[in-house]
Each structure stands twice: as C-alpha cells, then as structure tokens.
Amino acid sequence: MSCCGHGHAGHDHAGSAPADPALAGLAIRPDRLLDRLEQLAAIGRTDEGACCRLALTDEDRAGRDLVVSWMRELGLEVRVDRIGNIFGVRRGSEDLAPVMSGSHIDTVRTGGRFDGNLGVLGALEVVETLNDAGARTRRPLVVAVFTNEEGARFAPDMLGSLAYVGGLPLQQALDTVGIDGKRLGDELERIGYAGDAGLGLYRPHAFVELHIEQGPVLDLEGVRIGAVESLQGISWQEVSITGQSNHAGTTPMRLRHDAGYCAAAIGTKLREIARELGGDQVCTMGMVRLHPNLINVIAARATVTVDIRNTDEARLQEAERRFADFLEALAHAEGVKIETRRLARFEPVRFDDGIARVVERHAASMGLSCRRMTSGAGHDAQMLARICPTAMIFVPSIGGISHNPAEDTRPEDLAAGAEVLLRTLVELAS
Ligand code: GLV
Ligand code: MN
Ligand code: MN
After folding, report:
1. Please, which pLDDT band fits residue 24 given cuts at 50, 70 and 90?
2. Closest-approaching ligand to the CA atom of 105
3. Choice from 228, 305, 310, 379 to test ligand 1 binding pocket (greatest atom count within 8 A of CB)
4. For position 1, what pLDDT does the model report?
5. Which of 234, 253, 307, 378 has the fewest CB atoms within 10 Å, counting from its CB?
6. Number of the ligand 1 atom closest to the C-alpha atom of 116
7. Which residues contact 176 (CB under 8 A, 6 or more apart)?
8. How close is the Cα of 380 to the center of ligand 1, in Å?
C-alpha cells in the first residue's frame, strides 16, 4: 500500500523556487560525505573488510553514538523514540510538518559501507550544506535513523520504521527475540537507546531516502540516478523440520527421516519455483541450521529461512502457495514434522509519483542520466509510504554487489546522489 490522504508533497512542485535566496546555488561537499562514510564504516569492521553492526549490538551503539555526535555538532535537536529510532531536527522558518530523510545504520553480519549509511549521512550532509550557507527551509528537516532495518538479527526487517508508522505494536516489537536468543527491548535498554519519545513523533510532509541500488540495473546500463517508484513485496518465514537422528552408515535410505535432506530439498524447490514463475520472482534460502550437525549422524532437526519476493502481489501469493504445497508433500513423503513461522510479510509498494518526478527533474538539471525503477531490497521508505508521500533515490552499486564486504559505489555517484537529495529536500521543504 502506498497511501496517503494527507499532504501532496510531490504533486505541485514544478518550478517552485526556494523562498530563501541562500537556498539558490547550494552544493554538497563530497569530501565531507566520504569522510563520514569512512568513519562510520570503521565501526564494526571485520578482518574481511566487512561492516558488522548487527542491530542493537555494541557496534550498533558505537555507530549510533557517532551519528548522534554529528547531529549535535550540526545543531540538530536529537530525539530518540521508544523503539530506538533517532531523529535530528533542523527547524524551518515555519512550524509545519517536516520533510524527513534518512535510513538505517545497522548492517547484516557481512555488510558493506554504504547500505543504509549513505541515506543517513547524505541527509546529514544536506544539513551541513544548509548550515554553511546560513539557509533556512520553510519546513523543518528531520534526519532519521531507523532501528533494525536489516532484520538480520531481529525479524522482521524494517522493524523500527514499521513500528513508527503503527504497523507493529510497540510491545510486540520490544518482545521480539533475535537469532541469539536476546530480547530486542532488553538490548535496546542495554545500549542506551530506549528513548522516551512516542512512536510516530513526526507526521512528515514527505519522506525521501537516498540508498545504493544494491542490484545491477544502474551499473549495467551506465545510468547515474534511479528515481525509485516502487518496491517489491517481501515474504519471510522460518521452516523447522523435525526428523530422526540415526547412524549414517547403518540406516537404509528407505528408513530415514532426514531433516538435512529436507533442508536441501527446500533449497532446490525454491530455485524451481523461481524458475517456473519467471519474471521478477526471486527465492532464497539464506540460513540453514542442522542438528546435531555431525558427519556421521543423520540430522534430527533443521531450521532454514525462506525469503520470497515479487513486484506483483498475486504472483508473490502464488509462489507462497506453491511452496506451502511442497512442504506438505515433503513432510508426508519423508515422515518428518514441518512447522513454519512467519517472520515478515510486506506487500509491494508504489511510491509517490510527484516526488519521483522532482528527483528526475533535479537529476536532469545536473546533467545526470536517470531512470525510473523498482527496488528489489526492502527499505524504511516502504514503511514511511504508509503515512506520507515517499520516494527514493538510488545510486549505482558496482557489479550489483551488496550484503557483501565487496559492496561498492563510485565516490562521484555517492556525491551525485547526495546532491540530488539536497535539491529534492530543499524543493519539498520550500
Ligand atoms: C533489507 O535490507 C532486505 O531487503 O532484506
Ligand atoms: Mn539498506
Ligand atoms: Mn541491507
């Protein structure tokens, strides 16, 4: 669902000129943006050069502390809400609904430097650019850092922004148990980010998120900017298989109830469903745990995660149906018990066409090639789209690599994205 009954941020901006003369001729400083990206990337850096700042770990806390210190240096008023979302507010000349921009700074265990971080630090760079020029926007600007976007430690993904827009009750969010058995609310307290602000603190006039594409489209086509107009639906579940441990040498194949085999069959089936449905269908088995996980023991238990995505809701449901039918047949054929647990389910989202047009126009005015596109990854913007006009700006990911330490984007593309963000935010806030 994209919504929204209030505000029409993107629809009437063609040609609106900034009110404050200081807003004309602004330009971001790429060196500052790149420096902040590097400083943040140094927190949680692994031997492989990855960023590992799983949500609400000590590394996430250190990253948050750094970003909050930058917010304060830039004169932003910092608020933290009860799910740990952080907001830095720059006042406007009028006390109107703010324009919000931001993303997340938590990472997967093997994350890159830019996923999420670019959106937060790009928005901070916009603030510093405005500060340097002594420029005032009409509407306030809010830089947002949302809790646990990745969902790699606590499901679902986009948990902080989902709770923010009222899509997940606070208590349920706080009671979420992570892959390490820790409770989200306890971890939030532990790292000192259980804030006192209520959820949904600001009802934005508009939300814009700058992000790396994390896919191959812009890089392959040599296009500099993506004006993101939609985002595909996401279905996550955990599948637990209970079979029977036995001796790997003595147990005839026909007498086995092998949870390890079932896990492998699930992985294969997912690939088959994606091939059969074709088009945009993608399916992934990203996590496998076997018990007892020993060479000469048939696995008694297996737990796997299943990630199914499609840009089309009906086709996504068809993929889910085929997978559920398969699990039923598999349990019967192998004499095992199969249970599923829903981890996340989000329908495809359409973003605000007016804001996408603002992005396109500013890219064009800067001489940057730009295309409309859909997002394959989940983003906080898909949650904000439930409460305000929203769109995203993508910049190319070299080789389309992401959720991988090798994730990379050319410095000139990072800068171009931040510059388009600056112009877009200034226009929306004018
Ligand atoms: C979030 O980053 C997702 O798309 O999994
Ligand atoms: Mn991200
Ligand atoms: Mn990510």
Report:
1. confident
2. 2
3. 379
4. 30
5. 253
6. 2
7. 154, 155, 159, 183, 184
8. 10
Rg, C-alpha atoms of the chain: 23
Strands (E), 347-398: 349-350, 370-375, 390-395
Q: How far is the CA of 157 from the centre of ligand 1 (A)?
A: 7
H helices of 150-288, in order, are 159-164, 170-174, 184-190, 217-221, 259-277
Which ligand approaches the C-alpha of residue 212 most closely?
A: 2
By most ligand atoms within 8 Å of CB, the mutation choice from 234, 235, 282, 346 for ligand 1 is: 234
Atom of ligand 1 nearest to the CA of 158: 1
Ligand 3: distance of its center to the CA of 158 in Å? 10
How far apart, in whole angstroms, are the C-alpha atoms of residue 293 and residue 299?
Answer: 6
* pLDDT for res 14: 42
Which residues 6+ apart lie within 8 Å of 417 measured at CB?
118, 122, 210, 225, 393, 394, 395
Q: Is there an atom of ligand 1 within 6 Å of 159 CB?
A: no
Cα 173 off chain centre by = 17
Q: What does the pLDDT read at residue 102?
A: 98
pLDDT at 140 over 70: yes
Structure tokens at 194: 């259980």
How open is the CA angle 405-407-413, to the nearest 5 degrees? 150
Q: Is 157 in the pocket of ligand 1 (CB under 6 A)?
A: yes
For residue 22, name the pLDDT band (cuts at 50, 70, 90): confident
Residues 91-101: what's their mean pLDDT? 98
Q: What is the phi/psi pair of residue 79, to 5°?
A: -125, 145
> pLDDT at residue 165 above 90?
yes
- Which atom of ligand 1 is nearest to 376's Cα? 4
Residue 150 Cβ contacting ligand 1 at under 6 Å: yes
Confidence of residue 19 (pLDDT cuts 50, 70, 90): low
- CA 48 / ligand 1 centre spacing (Å): 21
Note the pLDDT of residue 416: 98
CA of 116 to the centre of ligand 2 (A): 4
Q: Give the pLDDT of residue 23.
A: 77
Cβ atoms of residues 161 and 201 within 8 Å: no
- Output the DSSP codes for 124-169: HHHHHHHHHHT---SS-EEEEE-S--S-SSSSSTTHHHHHHTTSS-
- Residue 112 one-letter amino acid: G
